[in-house]
Amino acid sequence: MRKALIALAAGATVLAPGAAALAEEGLWTFDDAPTSAVRQSLGVRIEGAWLGHLQRASVRLTSGCSGSAVSREGLILTSQHCIAGCEESLSAGGADYMRDGFLTDSRGQESRCPGLEAEVLLSITDVTAKVFAAGAGKWGQTYVTARETALNNAEKAVCKGDARLRCQVIGFFDGGQFKVYKYRSYKDVRLVFAPEFAAAFFGGAADNFTFPRYALDFAFLRLYENGKPAPTPDFLAWSRAAPSAGEAVFMAGNPGATERHLTYEQLRTLRDLALPTAQAQRRDFRDRLIAFSQASPEHARVAREPLFQEENALKILEGRIAALERPGILEARQAEESELRARLAVDAELAAQVGDPWREIDQAQRAFREQYPAWRELEAAQGGGSQLFEWARLLVRGAAERQKAVPERLPDFAPSRLPLVEKILLDPTPVDADLERLRLEFWLTRTREDLGADSPAVAVFVGKEEPAALAARLVAGSRLSDPAFRRALWEAGPETLKTCGDPLIAYVIATDPISRAARRMWEDEVVGPSDRANERIDHLRLAVKTQPVYPDATFSLRLSYGRVAGQQEKGAEQTAFTTLAGLYARAGQAPPYDLPPRWLEARPRLDPATMLDFLTTTDIAGGGSGSPVVDAKGQIVGTAFDGNLASIAGDFVYDGDENRTISVTTVAIDAALAKVYGRTALLNELEPDRPAAL
Burial, 49: exposed, middle or buried (Cβ in 10 Å; 0-12, 13-18, 19+)? Predict the structure, then answer.
């Protein structure tokens, strides 16, 4: 309770010197970096050039992860689990790169990752005033159209039609700020190196979100343009030194979403409905995946990466539920709301501007509870993760949306998003028919169970067929696995879709009106009212703040700072480091503690004292995997791949005494490349002046 009250509403606070752990909270935008707080807390100056270099060396991956440029020739360091989907796609045809690792001996062997793009942030432009002015005095659909027009015009004005760029307006503080993020976009991203999954995820689900950790979770990609490695003049110098306890460190990554500004009632709805529902469904699907993987070696291969995703998601859900159930977070949020309301009571002008947004959110939560099952099954989780279904929906919705004026389109089909949609749709991504049937069958079964067999929506989505039979029919008759067929449909338009004869296309055409209706109702009665109310609450926070405030995560580049530090475990300080000696001491004969043959054979050549993984107080959230961890000189000392168990509660509140980021060191990567995998060319690229004996 004490720690939660210090964090108050889990919004950002920069505290005075002497409270360093708490002062290191924050997912700061690069145009509002807390330079003064960093000087006070860490004694380090991060000036404009330092920040600009780190910004331009950082990478956002459309797989939902982060990375960093580590050579002038487009070499990108990230986490192995961030490119596991690429490995699986490249493994079709007999290879098993997840099992054996992906090693290249020349640039010609570097292989393109289907559907993957990389983006480097070039600039940030504040357009808040223009967006607010566009909507002033307008209501309803007129307001929506005016705002959407302003957002699209802002993106066009910054990118100026340059096909190499992607401009994205990102809203912060629940719509209190709008900024155009201009990215250099790379559509040709190739896999260079990845270790075996057994090494990258050593310890498996049992060790996930825990420490000590002994994982080699890293991989290398390369950016290409015009068929050649892309120049990346802003890259991070490679550190040959291991980090030390207490050392100041910085992390640049793209955290996907945090909920540190949600109200008490919104958190209760998450705790009581949304999170338990997701947990139950993922447990069910995880169990089905396990049974599926036991049917054959090929099933085991194709299920390995999705099974990892499900286990990881389950652990996150369990941690989030536990965080909201234990005393502290909800009480702190209530206390903060009481303080904000007290400020309104003595400021009539501010009260007139803000009104009573908490009452509006309470009303929206009632709609949330009523509509959540239908919205989840018919829209948000539609298709159950089936790749074929996703392609079908993109084709059907894309054909309809591209005929509309830009402000009237669904956000996924705005001009700035279309290149990524086309890449996802048209890249030659292999699919496994058996896994596709499993995903569709599971989704159809859950839809019937959760909405009820007598639901009008279920009558359309499932009808009188059994889910297994319907899923088999849709997959068996579909030609969407052929990228040439998908391209032809994308370029042909709505009428061709209606007559193409593909059962999945026909299914989406028949069901999409109901899905869109569920989406409209959700947005009109839950999202819209909640966003408008939260916007006013954040306006109040900004109006009364006495310290700098950072916005919730939005999968945009953020800076976090902290120190190398261990964690408290059962009242004792636990070390911040693990070593290769600890890795071999923990290794056994069976998964998840079995080491690949290369690692067993290389043991005599490795220094057992080599630092492997380490802990930092940097603020991490989902999407931060692959983030570079740099020292005060801006040299990369590691790449983040996980957080500890306490960091899961970081979705709602940061606790500097407990939250930790887990990273793999550059010295461990060096040792692996040199003495386990023999990647001399890669080492020379990372460290051009590397001594030959290393």
Answer: exposed
Highest mean pLDDT among 88-97, 224-233, 650-659: 224-233
CATH 2.40.10.120 range(s) for the chain read 2-117+187-259+552-686
| Helix extents (H) in 238-328 | 264-269, 275-293, 297-325
Percent of the chain whose pLDDT exceeds 90: 87
Longest dimension (CA), the chain: 74
The mean predicted confidence, pLDDT, of the chain is 93
**Residue in the block written with tokens 């069958």:** 441
Q: Whole-angstrom Cα distance, residue 194 to residue 12?
A: 37
Which string of b and e fits 528-557 if b means at least 16 CB within 10 Å? ebbeebbbbbbbbbeeeeeeebbbbbbbbb
pLDDT average, residue stretch 642-653: 94
User: How far is the C-alpha of 167 from the C-alpha of 284, rounded, in Å?
Assistant: 39
- What lies within 8 Å, CB to CB, of 666 at 6+ separation is 238, 239, 240, 636, 637, 638, 639
Contact between 234 and 57 (Cβ < 8 Å)? yes
Query: What Cα–Cα distance (Å) separates residue 495 from each residue in 267, 399, 507, 516?
Result: 45, 9, 15, 20
Residue type at 404 in one-letter notation: K
Alpha carbons 346 and 26: distance in angstroms, whole number: 30
Pick from 615, 673, 694: which is nearest to 244 by CA? 615
Q: Which residues of 468-484 are buried (b: 16+ CB within 10 A; e: fewer)?
A: eebbbbbbeebbbbeee
Contact 524, 499 (CB under 8 A): no
H-helix or E-strand containing 326? none
Task: Judge contact between 598 and 677, C-beta under 8 A.
Answer: yes
Residue 219, token pair as written in the block: 């991989």
Provide the strand spans (E) within 587-676: 611-616, 628-630, 636-643, 661-665
- Across the range 390-395, mean pLDDT stands at 98
Q: Measuring CA to CA, how many Å separate 377 from each of 151, 373, 446?
A: 30, 6, 8
pLDDT at 23: 54
pLDDT reading at 107 higher than 90: yes
Q: Are 332 and 10 in contact, with CB atoms under 8 Å apart?
A: yes
Average pLDDT rounded to a whole number, residues 486-514: 96
- One-letter amino acid at 655 equals D
End-to-end CA distance of the chain: 50
Three-state secondary-structure class, residue 548: coil
| Cis peptide, bond prior to residue 592, ω within 30 of zero | yes
| CA 289 – CA 300 distance, rounded (Å) | 9
User: Closest Cα to residue 200, out of 314, 61, 97?
Assistant: 97
**CATH, domain 2-117+187-259+552-686, list 2.40.30.10, 2.40.10.120, 3.30.360.10, 3.40.50.300:** 2.40.10.120
Cβ-based neighbours of 391, under 8 Å, separated by 6 or more: 425, 480, 486
**The tokens 């009581």 sit on which residue?**
272
One-character DSSP codes across 20-59: HHHHT---EEGGG--HHHHHHHH-----HHHHHHHHHHEE
Alpha carbon distance 134, 150 (integer Å)? 6
Phi, psi of 651 (to 5 degrees): -60, -30
The helix/strand/coil state of 235 is coil
Helix-, strand-, coil-residue percentages of the chain, each rounded to 5: 50, 15, 35
